Amino acid sequence: MSGSEGDLQRDGLEAAQPCGDFFKRATSPPGCDGDVSLLPDTGMEKASRRSFQRRKDAVVQHRALLGEKTYISIECGQSFGRSSDLTRHQRIHSGERPHVCPDCGRSFGRRSHLIQHRRVHPGERPYPCRHCGKSFRQSAQLVQHQRSHTGERPHVCAKCGRNFYQSSGLLRHASSHSGEKPQRCPQCGKGFGDSSNLTAHQRLLHTGEKPYRCDNCSKCFRESSKLLIHRRAHTGEKPYLCPDCGKGFSQRLHLVQHHHTHTGEKPYKCAECGTGFGDNSTLIRHRWTHSGEKPFQCSHCDKSFTRHYYLLSHQQGHTW
């Protein structure tokens, strides 16, 4: 230790590296629950609680400028420059959602997410789509919707190159590479990469909850995305257009499968005989020819069929 450094420590001063600014180490003033922090040397031995907090905030900002991250998650080791950022992060592990919607009771980990959610309740939709006229409450929702028309997928996985419409989809996908599953089901202990997959799991296997209701027919769904697809059956909306023939589809998967009829691609292969198919549902039906499975059974007799429309034709014989 140099002589100047020793003099600084005897005077209660400490240099903040790497910029050389000097701060005085001080304890919290009486009645303050704050931890020991570095205070700028003002020559005052006794700071008021308000001035203490003001200086403490200045130190936090100073550390952020230096890139210091002194708040560490005990669950995963990730570090943060502010305690508030750590608090928000810890809700990922704990599942805590303190911000509750007064309209429907749904809860969120961040206040900003609650504010965005509240726009789904009745209100104005000032952002119309120039392709189909559908309107949205948020400009970000419009941007994401327009990608269903353009096919744009700007969020790319650095590991495998897979593309996604939304950054949230990329984040969920990334957990499949890292293997991290911090979200645990309290009923069965199964782990998930994010809270949305955990919620879907709980509704499917444990609670049976279907909170998303169709305004047209009152049918309920476990996921908002499934309700969105279902609504297209009422509106006739088919936002996914084939670039080769212009045919529209209500789901992207149906467009992908249809496009194989143009390219001749048959990516779904039968493990038994090697026959290829353009879509997975046709492959499943084909497999029944090997297994002998006939999943569509008549409720009037013991006869069963490999296809649903075969069953419907058969059941008409019972009504005559």
TrEMBL record:
Q: Keywords assigned by UniProt?
A: DNA-binding, Metal-binding, Nucleus, Repeat, Transcription, Transcription regulation, Zinc, Zinc-finger
| Compartments where located | Nucleus
- Tell me if Endoplasmic reticulum is a UniProt keyword of this record: no
List residues of the C2H2-type domain: 71-98, 99-126, 127-154, 155-182, 183-211, 212-239, 240-267, 268-295, 296-320
Cross-referenced SUPFAM superfamilies, in alphabetical order? beta-beta-alpha zinc fingers
Q: What is its main location?
A: nucleus
Q: Which InterPro entries match?
A: Ikaros_C2H2-ZF, Znf_C2H2_sf, Znf_C2H2_type
| BP term (GO), one | regulation of transcription by RNA polymerase II
Q: Which residues form a coiled coil?
A: none
Question: For this protein, what is any one GO molecular function term?
Answer: zinc ion binding
Locate the region Disordered: 19-40
GO annotation, cellular component aspect? nucleus
Per the record, the similarity remark reads: Belongs to the krueppel C2H2-type zinc-finger protein family.
Q: What is this protein called?
A: Zinc finger protein 239-like
Q: What is the primary gene name for this protein?
A: LOC113994325
